[in-house]
Fold this protein.
Amino acid sequence: MVLRISYFCSCLLLVVSCSSSGDKVIPEPPAPPEVVGENLFIMHCAVCHGEDGKLGASGAKDLSISNLSDAATLKIIKEGKNAMPPMKALLGNNKNISLVLEHIKKLRH
Ligand code: HEC
């Protein structure tokens, strides 16, 4: 009988300790996409294009006056063109590439 009661108690304790530890850790919210796109651009593209897209280092085109279609822009980002190296590997995946595309379209007038 005594054994049974202590078994019951330890079970109860386990349940209580498990349920109370549930919602204490609040995970960091993920960065919103605008920030990711801008950061990727600053990290990988601004060295030639400048943060506002107008720098033109190494013969880079002014992105604020670019009028290329999304498809043509994506192709240049992925495969490069003349002095611009392909950026696909650096950007890692298609999601990052489209986030950068969204960002550079905001640099246009
Ligand atoms: C090493 C310097 C360099 C880096 C880094 C670079 N670019 Fe470029 N980019 C260039 C050059 C040079 C051109 C002009 C290519 C040509 O047409 O001869 C260009 C052209 C472009 C164009 C075409 C614009 C137009 O209207 O013709 C786009 C879009 C572009 N770059 C986007 C990007 C993005 C996005 C990144 C980062 C992921 C990036 N570039 C990184 C040098 C660079």
Summary: Residues 33-106 form a domain with the Cytochrome Bc1 Complex; Chain D, domain 2 fold (CATH 1.10.760.10). The first helix runs from residue 2 to 20. Confidence is low (pLDDT under 50) at residues 9-18.
